[in-house]
Amino acid sequence: MPKLIWLNGNLVPPEQATVSVFDHGLLYGDGVFEGIRVYNHRVFKLATHLNRLYESAKSIRLNIPITLQDLTEATHATVKANGVQNGYIRLCVTRGAGTLGLNPFACPTPNIFIIVDAITLYPAELYDKGLAVITSSVVRNHPAALSPRVKSLNYLNNILAKIEAIDAGVLEAVMLNPQGYIAECTGDNIFIVKDGVLYSPPLHAGVLEGITMTTVLRLATEAGIEIRRPDLTKHDLYIADEMFLTGTAAEVIPVTKVDNRTVGEGEVGPMTQLLINAFKNLVSNNAPED
User: Fold this and answer.
1) pLDDT in tens, 99-138
2) CB 279 within 8 A of CB 219
3) Which is the catalytic residue, given 45, 129, 151, 280?
4) Residues 6 or more apart in contact with residue 178 via CB below 8 angstroms
């Protein structure tokens, strides 16, 4: 449990960190957020995360009532106030309190809060032996309906797929887009390896441009790995030599089973292990904040 929450300019105890029941973030999922990692007191890719936050807000015409510099300082102050060396930040901007109607312009003052806490998305042993996943029957939202580049508070589409995964006895699900191509998982981006080539779905498939994903793509390029980003189908998952997921909370985690089919040899593959090691090395040695 965090000691202090940053709420609209003040650090307050968790029991005092409250918003109105009329907040449109609660009533309609109207708002944006970022999940951010802290490694050795450094906020990993903070500038990149905050730029994405402001872009998401601009896309939905939500004015964040604080400068980028001030929000950067507030994030650092919250990490320091909680004495966190390694942890997770959840930074949210809600539309604010308004009327019992959809009109966002009836909400004069957005709410901003920053939570710094620990997070464990998957059990530690799965990073060694690999994760089992399913492909979900829940279709990813069409990009023309809601851009996946907007990291919004409305995650019901992902949550329904997550429920399906849990009901199937696994912890994650791959979601297809309306055309039947692979998009992403409920909370992670997806990669496969086939014949020494690294594949990941293209952004036009309805993919959030994950910050861990782009970091891993850069690490792969630096390692001389060939990267391709065509549209992928379930067939590509079933014949993959290796598979892994990336995300701020998940970091880099191998997948060794999909829809009860064994991926490759059923163990962490060499390219996956190389990229896991490269990512760990990056974040443990002066993790970049830009």
Assistant:
1) 999 999 999 999 999 999 998 889 999 999 999 999 999 9
2) yes
3) 151
4) 139, 140, 142
The answer to whether the CB of 209 falls within 8 A of the CB of 169 is no
Count Cβ atoms within 10 A of the Cβ of residue 13 and give its class: 0-12 exposed, 13-18 middle, 19 or more buried. exposed
Q: Which tokens sit at 67?
A: 């400068």
Token pair listed for 233? 């189908």
Angstrom distances, CA of residue 169 to CA of 134, 173, 188, 243, 278: 9, 11, 18, 19, 31
pLDDT in tens, 10-26: 999 999 999 999 999 99
The amino acid occupying position 49 is H
Tokens for 288, please give them.
């970049």
Output the six-digit token pair for 86: 């390694």
Contact (Cβ atoms closer than 8 angstroms) between residue 230 and residue 203:
no
Between helices 46-59 and 68-81, what is the axis angle to 10°?
130
Phi, psi values for residue 119, rounded to 5° = -145, 140
In the numeric block, which tokens belong to residue 178? Answer: 């309306």
Is residue 162 among the annotated active site residues?
no
Report yes or no on whether pTM surpasses 0.90.
yes
